Amino acid sequence: MNTVHLPPLFTAMLTAGADPFEAACTAARQGCDAGLVTYDISADRLRAAIVFAPEIALTHAMVMQPICGIGFQNALGTLAPPEVSVHLEWGGALRVNGAKCGTLKTAAHPADPAQVPNWLVVGLDLTLWADTQDTGLTPDVTSLYAEGCSDVPAGDLLEAWVRHTLSWINRWDEDGVQPVHSEWTGLAHGISDNVTVNGLTGTFRGIDETFGLLLQPDGPAQIIPLTHTLKDVS
Questions:
Q1: How do strand 36-41 and strand 11-14 relate by DSSP bridges?
Q2: What is the pTM of this model?
Q3: CB count, 10 Å around CB of 87?
Q4: Domains of the chain, first to last
Q5: Among 61, 123, 127, 140, which residue has the fewest nearby CB atoms (within 10 Å)?
């Protein structure tokens, strides 16, 4: 699919084999407008990224990552068979029917949590098909088409991802973070599980108002800010 149809204020740019996340970060550094969507679709992979221009400190602007996760879940929910489930990991991983199928990653500049970033980019990397096994990769890793979604066109999924992400951005803008918090928590993978984050192991107790991870090791709970998941693209 060479062209995609996006909502007003979004502009599509095909990266033709190049990494859309890196392309979006480069375009953002060069001063592109917010709403640029870079993408590359191959037979086995869908990669895309959206450029944002937040007007709030990065700590709060990181809400774009969970919003993009919710947008993906909503998008696939409209296109996939009803039995297909999507769950979201705090660090950005996307799970389809319980197994990892892709990831979201975020970069921003400057990366100081207290500053308003000049730009923020959220990237999507989704495995459509893996030819190592007909039914997936390992019990914990899968591909979209191995999970009964072979009739979902990647281009349609990309368009739906942007539309549903925009819908949630509008809801966040109008109603605040609480609806996003509630929706994401309902889709979260791993709450109450034992996890290791930034070298700390403990129980994943949930998220705070800025989507920091509440981790309870042997002692008082600690908050790991979502900004700790930022990718270094300097």
A1: parallel
A2: 0.95
A3: 18
A4: 11-190 (3.30.930.10)
A5: 140
